[in-house]
Amino acid sequence: MDFAKRLIDWYLQNKRDLPWRETVDPYKIWLSEIMLQQTRVSQGMPYYFAFTEAFPTVFDLANADEQQVLKLWQGLGYYSRARNLHSTAKTIAFDYTGNFPESYKELLHLKGVGDYTAAAIASFSYGEAVPVVDGNVFRVLARYFDVETDIASPKAKKEFATLAFELMPKDNPAIFNQAIMEFGALQCVPKNPDCAVCPMNDSCLALQKGKVAKLPVKLKKQKVTNRYFNYLVYRDEKGNTLLQKREGKGIWQNLYEFPLIETDAEADLMMVSDKIENEILSISRINSVPIVHKLSHQQLFLTFWEVDVDGKLENGISTTEMMKFPVPIVLHNFMERYFGSEDLFSKPQRF
Questions:
Q1: pLDDT in 10s for each residue of the chain, 351 residues
Q2: Domains (ranges, CATH) in the chain?
Q3: CB burial readout 226-258, b (16+ within 10 A) else e
Q4: Measured between alpha carbons, how far is 318 from 197 in angstroms, rounded to an integer?
Q5: Which residues form the catalytic set?
C-alpha cells in the first residue's frame, strides 16, 4: 500500500480552500504558519487577512509600530509570537533586503522560526524535501504505524521526522506535508475519528489493534500554576482611567493592562485597599466572582476593582483612548462589557 499516494489522493479531494495554499510567497506562508501555532484555522483566518491587508509586504510589517502589531494580534494569544514576528520582519527587510532564506537550515536562524515553521516554508516555498512534524503528523503516523514513542520525549521529533521523510515523495514534498497535516486536522482527529470512512482503515495498525484512542502517547504533563490578579480600574473626576505597559519577561509582555496587584490567593477589599498608594474616594469590587482565564501553563483568577479618586489622574486617559491600546483579550472583553460599546462615559454596570 502506497501510504503517500493514498494520503495525497485524499487531500486533493478533501482539502480546505485556504489562502496561504494559493501562494509560494514565503512571507505569506511564514505569516500563516506563525499565526496557526497553537491556533485553530477558523480562529487564525481573520487575523491572516487583517495582517496581509495592513502589511502587504515584509517591509510594511518591519516598519510598523509594535503597538499596532500587538493590537492587530489581540485575541490570538501567545503574544511572544507577535513580537518575534515583528522582530524577524525587521531582520528580513533590513538585513536580508526583503528576501527570505531559501533553505531549512538557514531559516532556522530567524527569531521565532523553529523546526516546524522552517520545514513548512522550505517545502512550500522552495520545494525542499524536509518533513513538517506537528501534532497532526505525530497523531497520523503514531496511529497508522503503531508508534508508541512518547511524543513529549526528546527523541520523538527526530524519530517521527525520519519516518515522514522516508514516506515523502522527494519530487513533491509540499503536497505531502500539506496532505498529512490536513489528514490529521480533518480525518484522523484527536477524539472519536470516523475510522469507518478513513481511506487508510484497511492497513492502520492502531485500528487493527484497537489502540486508536490510546495513540499518540503523551506522558509528560505540564504543571499548571494558579495566579490571582487584582486590577484597579481607576476613575477620576473627568471619567479618565489608567493603563500601564507590562514590562519584562512573562505573559503579555508589552501589552497594556490596568494597574495590577497580584496576590497569593483571592483578595478581599481590605487587602487591596491597603496596597493602593493613591488618595481614593471609594473602592468597590466589580465582578463578584473572579474571571478564570486559562493559559497553557497558568490559570489566572481576575478580579476588577473600581477605584474612584479625587481630582485628575496623572497620565489618565479617556475610555475611548483606552480601547485603542493592545491588551490581553480577557481585558478587552472586560472593557467591552464593563464600559459598554455605545456610551463609554456612562456609569458602568456591575457583573
A1: 589 999 999 999 999 999 999 999 999 999 999 999 888 999 999 999 999 999 999 999 999 999 999 999 999 989 999 999 999 999 999 999 999 999 999 999 999 999 999 999 999 999 999 999 999 999 999 999 999 999 999 899 999 999 999 999 999 999 999 999 999 999 999 999 999 999 999 999 999 999 999 999 998 777 899 999 999 999 999 999 999 999 988 899 999 999 999 999 999 999 998 888 777 889 999 999 999 999 988 999 999 999 999 889 999 999 999 999 999 999 999 999 988 744 433 444 445
A2: 3-214 (1.10.340.30), 225-339 (3.90.79.10)
A3: eebbbbbbbbbeeebbbbeebeeeebbebbbbb
A4: 57
A5: 33
